[in-house]
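[SOLVED] Need 3D model of a three-part complex

Original post:
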Amino acid sequence: MSAALVRPLQLIYSKEIKSEFFMYRQSPIIRWRKYEEQYQLIGNKCINCNSAFYPKKELCLCGNNAFIKLQFSGEGQLLSFTEIKSAPEEYAFAVPYCLGIIQLKEGPKILAQITDCNGTDLKIGTKVQAAFRKYYKVNDAGIIHYGIKFIPLPKNDDNSNDPIRNNDEMSYKETGE
Amino acid sequence: MPSTNVAVVGIAVTKFGELWSKSLRNLLAESQFAALEDAKLSPKEVDMIVTGNMLAGELSGQTHLGAMASELLNLNIPSYRVEGACASGSLALSAGINAIKAGAANIVLINGAEKMTDIATNQINSALMSASNEETEGFQGATFCALYAMMARAYMHEYSLTRKQLAMVSVKNHKHGSLNPTAQFRNEITVDQVLESTLVADPLTLLDCSPISDGAASVILASEEVARKITDTPIWILGSSIATDSIALHDRKSLLEMPATAIAAQKAYQQAKISPEQINITEIHDCFTIAEIIAMEGLNLVEKGAAGKTVEEGMTYYDGKIPINPCGGLKACGHPIGATGIKQVVEVAKQLRGEAGRRQVANPMYGLTHNVGGTGATVAVNIFKRN
Amino acid sequence: MRRIKFISNINKRTRTSRQPLYISKRRKTVNKMDQQKLNIGIIGFGGYIPQYRIKTEEIAAATNNHDAATIVNSLLIEEKAVPNKDEDTITISVQSAKNAVERANINKNDIGAIYIGSESHPYAVKPSSTIVAQALGMSNQFTTADTQFACKAGTASLQIVAALVKAGMIKYGLAIGSDTAQSKPGDFLEFSAGCGSAAILLGNNEQETAAFIQYTHSITSNTPDFWRRQNQNHPEHAGRFTGEPAYFHHIITTTTKLLEKTDHKITDFQHVILHQPNGKFPLVAAKKLNITNQQLKYGMLVNKIGNCYAASALLGLVNVLEHALPNEKILLTSYGSGAGSDSFIIETTEQITEKQKKAKLLKEYIAKKEYINYNQYRKAMEQIV
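Solution:
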């Protein structure tokens, strides 16, 4: 599949190409159907072979079509990632942003943006955690789309220093009147 | 009653590139007329038309291309448009082959056409994502470059493919493009230029990625009986197979391969009753440099993990041991989406006929085309033999 | 020279001019109000601060305000929190609410109300809480409406939810204060407008109660110190008028009133939280109210995160709750321009210690930071409209 890049550089980074997004991207209804799934990371699990799927699967690989709802913990690790410099129009404002394929703890793989990081922070195998974030808005008057992105977890989690408690002196100067 | 063999009896391809003054209709017309001329057939002799195209609806507001193709020839015959993302052309070919084998037609005109450059770049980026899983990939902000970039990263992490070897795929294709008069890019490039060009989706740069293009290609298929009557150089279709897989990259079992490629290839080799070593010229779907690497292995042209080395040793040039993409591939020849699958057939046919001019592969007997939709959700493999 | 006025129940005179009201040491009578404890349980609490920070000196340099040192000294803000391009009041509320719910240890489906106070709701019509509730996975058996009252929208929400719980109309309720504060480029507010969210979960559940809201008092006036018109991106303010007649008058009056009517002295409290528009104002107000630095210690976060507007006072409360010992008394007074103040007396229980460990601590969010420059800051702010 082709990418986008014969044009002069200024067009690649141009923000002046304002547009009314193509019809389906303006419809709030298409996304509304999947709010619960998308916001809460809910998929399903086959009752026959216990395979987990996100988003929910219609027909399991084992041939069974009966499932139960399953909410994922949001924990996972990066199988691969990239930093995008040339984006589709609805995400042009966000460039550069990171995209990753994450293996969720419960099994299935998911594609999502990795946020609160630079491309250089990421490695294959980095542990990530789901977070609720804004995707994009359909221009200034349109609906705002939300969903799940992932944040890389710091290497050592217990590395918190209290700027207040550990420092008995006030961190600001007292003033008199 | 055994089904008939099918041959390619006419071929044509337009120039690929930013063809400002040509509309989709103009391209379709040009390509169809040229193919008929090449086959020395008149429009009235065509029984059926199948046209492959992906984005005419979204980018031109024009669907119903079957009727357009037919009206251009002033005909009332059955005419279809088929879509399979970037494999649309091959799906059109497949439909034509099936129609002939079923006895529903004797002469079928197959088109592939695409008009992309009327629309702004980042809007095209969005439109292209309809070939991905819209909800789980497009909506998340993916582009195809990003998806293939992730495959590249995973592949480089797993095997010893170097960034330089990846770049050499592009260098080779540009060399071929310089030898192809209808290619979009005729300039040769260097490895350094590839590495230093703008990052699009890390680690892929501008020169790792195929461009946005306009263009059309057509072939005419005929049943064996008819083919022998109308031409001395029928190009036989020995094997033609399609395989599909999950739309989304992350729904497949591995980021390092395209299972559909192996499945389609195996079926095609079986039908053709030949082995990969016998293939003399291959047209691979190099939408991104990494795609050519992965496909070389999926088609069994080289061993798993060995593609990088093979490229580095120069074996995939048109005059090398395993010629790949002598027309310049998608990278240099251009990638008008629906047209690519048919352009590949045109190139193989040209080579097998000995009409490829400066990029002629020496004495080829068998040729293979490999056409992919999305990141491997549809893969078509066709095997051809000269008469 | 202090001005002294007598106020008695019988002879209520309306003041004809707006004079600051000072407290007389000699006055004995107060408006007799119901002094019964409310006993409204705080079951869960949690906060969220985005990870990006911009230093005051960075803003000063970029806006050609070379006197960075003076600004830092006058505002006592070193750096402030900045939302990422994909964060807004809704997403940060989800985060703080998740932490509060984790601490609460209850069934989410029993939450009967959610009120979010903010001056940066993404929609003017469509409550942020509808989206937050769905992201949390709450059932849809709840009531809601968004609130706005500048920086006291969070505590206003707290009072609403407290009342619903006390009235027995709901079992549990979430009160959230969140803001991704906007400021005009080059305006002085740029140095302080920060970003954060704090959530308090209230309910009737002895076992899970970390603290009780015992008393509350509010005053409201029509004071044009700071406002934003419907279709404007940035607020306007009246300069120095935002001090004495606005912030100080309301904070001091409300706090004093609450202490009076509930028969408390300022020394009764181990922790005091005041709204923090900058690092200086609360210290000045504290001096007037005889609040010590020790009492202010855990409630003052502005130096590191800026003024989080509707979240400011509640974030102070969350930090206090995350550090407080059992059986301590907390005094909280918020201030919202326009103007008004809500004051609360809160008492911690034995169960608070257990609750503290149950979710990510605010201090962890504050410690996790990435500095950005002014350009990046303005790009992030472009997304907040």
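Edit: DSSP finds 15 helices and eleven strands in chain B.
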